[in-house]
Structure formats: C-alpha cells, structure tokens
Amino acid sequence: MAILNIVKDGDEILRKRSREISAVDEKILTLLEDMKETMHKAGGVGLAAVQVGKLKRVIVIDIGTEELELINPKMLKMSGSQESLEGCLSCPDRWGITRRPLRVEVETLTREGKTVRKKAEGFLAKAICHEMDHLEGKLFYDEALRMLTPEEMKEYE
Ligand code: NI
C-alpha cells in the first residue's frame, strides 16, 4: 500500500469528468487500498480517484460507522434535504454550508464485479453526493449555500 499525493484545488484535473472503468482488476484493487490509506492518513471521510490524480470513477468513503467503496456509481434516487457543514481534502481551510439530499440510493460495482444497490441517509448520503460530484469535476463550494468566514472557522477548530 502507499500514501498518494492529494491534488489540491487549482489543479485543473479536479474539473475534469472521470471515466468509467471497464473491469475491476488488480490495478483498481490496489488503487482502492491506496486511496483508503491516503484518506485515513489525511483524516478525511471520503476520497475520489481524481483527488489522487486518476480520472477513474472510483470512490472510497469511511464515516467511522460505515465504510463504502463505489465503482462506476450511478445515482438512482434522491429524497429529502439536509443543510450542514462540508469541506474537502482538496480544499484545505475552506468550509461551507451545503444543501444535500437526506437520502440517496446508488448502484455500484463491487470488487467482485457485481452490480449492487446501496441506500444511505444523513452524513453518509452527503458523503456519497460530495464524492460523486468529484467524478463530474464539481467541488463542494460550487453550489454551497455559503462559505464560512475565517472568524467562523476559528470556532470549529
Ligand atoms: Ni472532496
């Protein structure tokens, strides 16, 4: 396993659309493990492959209570709404209030190449939406309701 470099906002790769992968091979499995290690080391709850410089539709999420791998994910359903604080490993020191769906249902490939459905709500639903936006070249602040001021950020430290 390896710790990968996290691409920071300003690098144009973050604005590109990631591509579907054709098969879950050894390279993808290694990428998943490296991404998890990188995310944990950085103290994040989610990471998309583009954030380590790979334009592939691969995501890892670990919200502490639940861990998830998404490969070629598709959004099937979204409902409800939640407003909460959001940040991104690629956007250090930037936090904003976003509005996200409260519940989502996604379709994803598993490591074994099986197509499965996954329902999520609350914080996990937010994380899934955030990471899936990365696959389209979007960043959380693009549609944030508002960004925190430096004074407000001090309160969260
Ligand atoms: Ni992010």
Write the topology of this structure.
Blueprint: H1 26-42, E1 46-48, E2 58-62, E3 67-79, E4 82-86, E5 96-100, E6 103-109, E7 115-121, H2 123-135, E8 146-147, H3 150-156
Antiparallel strand pairs: 1-2, 2-3, 3-6, 4-5, 5-8, 6-7
The hetero molecules present are: nickel (II) ion
When the domains are counted, the total is 1
Shape: globular
- What share of residues is helical? 10-25%
Strand percentage lies at 25-35%
In the CATH hierarchy, what is the class? Alpha Beta
In CATH, the homologous superfamily goes by the name: Peptide deformylase
Could you walk me through the main structural features you see in this protein, from its secondary elements to its overall organization?
This protein has helices at 26-42, 123-135, 150-156, and strands at residues 46-48, 58-62, 67-79, 82-86, 96-100, 103-109, 115-121, 146-147. It is an alpha+beta fold. It has one domain (12-156): Peptide Deformylase (Alpha-Beta Complex), CATH 3.90.45.10. A five-stranded antiparallel β-sheet has the order 1-2-3-6-7. The longest helix is centred in the N-terminal third of the chain and has 17 residues, at 26-42. The radius of gyration is 15 Å and the shape is globular. The termini are far apart. The model has no long low-confidence stretch (mean pLDDT 96). Residues 88-90, 130, 134 line the site of nickel (II) ion.
